[in-house]
Specification:
Largest sheet of chain A: 7 strands, antiparallel
Helix content of chain A: 10-25%
Radius of gyration of chain A: 19 Å
Structural class of chain A: alpha+beta
Oligomer: homodimer
Number of helices of chain A: 6
Shape of chain A: globular
Chain lengths: 211, 211
């Protein structure tokens, strides 16, 4: 085992450090955020910072980095107050990754990547048509993180589009059946296999498998 | 495909809703947080809300829910200002899940779960000895989320303990080699397989595989 402390870490090449630290923190969520700008032009961008904030009401958070390619998405959310979160199918990983390129403001990542937009009636942001699970959100809170100038953007879920057949009787969604991918770091897309589900843990009970 | 809107969502049974919404949002990170209280008693708790905040300086965020089992961890971080984040091996998932039980303040989840604590000299929080990747952090920022009374706790990474052999020449950490697990929802532990890594995307270039 190696131990790297802050002094060693600071001395490392910037690109190596970004790859290293982004991948070493464990498996991450990966999703596509769909928005429209004030001129009704669509935008699609890949994120790996989705975090569950609460279930009642259903709230999701995303971290936005300053002055990055994600800036169009950030501006669109602040302007229109709505956005979609779309999980990614195994067959779509190359197209999804391509949305991370720094396209100009007047270029839609839908056209550039070949991913097809679709709409839910009355909701002003595009969904990814091939996504097996999509959420429609409205901006709830935009929280500045003073440590490094990023922002935590919190949205409230207004609707959820999903395949009913992946939901168990207890509400659990088996993402492995849906063909959804996860990621490691900034560029590795992963497929998951469920090792085990466990019952709700109690201090006086042995850990028990579900099924 | 089914569409569930807010009205339908509100009508659902609470436990079903929590399972449904936690699992449907995609693959998540899962890790164990090691702390000590003011009486030097150790605490270990499982979290699935770790999020990358920045690489330079290295910052990680965690969501803390109010009045939950995670409260001991939260209080310990606020009191001692230090904590460890430990990724989980496949063989440790049952023990890791057991740390989510509501143990009393004077009971250590290390003893209850059988996971073994270890220490880095001069650092006042316990690591999980069997963890293939651990981080030592100092509290940097505690941000209240007014939407639902949760908190985003941001820590700065002081040291990283890891297996050197999983790091590629570009800095990428192959977690599949390290035997690290991810999760779906609140109780399903997953193993990952890398489908593909892609080069840094550019608007005028085709998406290209790494290797």
């Amino acid at each position: 085992m190696a131990i790297l402390n802050r002094e060693n870490f600071n001395g490392i090449n910037h690109r190596f450090k970004v790859q290293f630290f982004n991948s070493l923190i464990g498996y991450k969520n990966v999703c596509l955020i769909g928005t429209k700008n004030a001129d009704k032009r669509t935008n699609l961008a890949i994120f790996n910072s989705l975090v569950h904030i609460g279930s009642n009401p259903p709230l999701l958070g995303l971290i936005f980095r300053p002055r990055s390619v994600e800036r169009h998405t950030y501006e669109n959310i602040l302007n229109t107050h709505v956005y979609t979160i779309n999980l990614i199918l195994e067959k779509d990983i190359a197209a999804a990754h391509q949305t991370s390129a720094r396209y100009s403001r007047d270029q839609s990542e839908f056209e550039a990547s070949g991913l097809v937009p679709t709409y839910i009636e009355g909701f002003n942001a595009p969904l990814v048509a091939s996504s097996p699970i999509s959420f429609g959100l409205t901006l709830k809170e935009n929280i500045p993180i003073s440590s490094n100038g990023t922002n935590l953007v919190i949205g409230e879920v207004l609707w959820i589009k999903y395949h009913e057949e992946i939901i168990s009787s207890d509400g659990f969604a088996d993402l492995t059946q849906a063909g959804v991918v996860g990621c490691i770091g900034l560029d590795a897309y992963t497929k998951g296999t469920i090792l085990q589900r466990f019952e709700y843990a109690k201090p006086d009970k042995e850990t028990r498998h579900i099924q």
